[in-house]
User: What shape does this take?
Amino acid sequence: MVAVNKPFESTPTAIPDEEEGETLNVPLVNGNGKDNFTDNGSGGDSASAPVKKPSGLGESAPFWLFMLFLASVTMTVGNKYVMKAWGDFANTLTLLQNGTAVLYLAGSRYAGLLEMKPIDGQQWRVFAATAFFLSMQILTSLKALPYVAIATVVVFRNTCTVIIALVDYFFFGNKFSKLQMASLALTTVGMLVYAGQDINFNAVGYLWLVGNSFATIANTFWNKVFITKYTKELKVQTSYGVSLIQQIETLPIIFVCAAFNNEGGAYMAYTPLPLEAKLTILATCAGGVLIGIAYPKCFSLLSGTSVVVASTANKAVSILIGMYLFGTRLSGTQVLGLAICISGSLWYALEGKRK
Assistant: This one.
């Protein structure tokens, strides 16, 4: 899984969603292939630009919402399915997915489709930490999936939202409205209700998710400080360039992890897999790239609020599909806690849009 950098908004800190958290790290574009952080130094604010009427399928909001849905579900449900069938080779799967992302980004740079500035040694050094955190995010997420329900992953990711907001408040001096604080409290209540009655509790899965939460929070704040500095303030690199650097730097880290985990037999284990498992592996590689394309396109065609709501709906559908495919059962109390947690997270996101 590769990680998606949501566009930086007016909310305190951009928070990765659970299904996109390990997908292609491609930032928001303003609709003309340029980076929001570097387009004429405006920070991506296109409010004064003339509005083009969408024309054709490539400019159809419903089409790109469907692409976003398809990619989100593929990365969430598909990764769980692959890990249940090929669970000893999480790092190999990541190499395939991140390698696909690197090919897309590097190929697009070579073809002039994505704007990137020259890459120097300092950039490689600065973003090495991000690559490490990102690799740990990916590894821990994949390792957790065979043990826990997709709903549990959603709850943990929303808990990260609360923790990140608290760190933002106490250490970065960001202020929140009363409604935002209420939404964070509601998210926390939902998380506690769900976890307290988790009939699918698995200690190993929860430990991997705790590790994933640490990596997610660390990566979020490293990105907050350095990606913002290098792309928005100093403008020495575009977000596409940062994405390419990060993805390339994850490859040797993940390769070492694969060697340490003795994943040399990955191909031998891959060969007898059923056809649907092999196709799902390919679909997750493509899904990581697709979600990196679909998110910017949706933001360019729709309001940020609409995309947030669509993303939340994708989570709910992924949970339902996962319950059907993997036979996951949730108690009534869990469903209530999950609904409260997701509602609180959605409320927080929407309130952030109004600030």
Remarks:
- The first helix runs from residue 61 to 85.
- The chain has a mean pLDDT of 84.
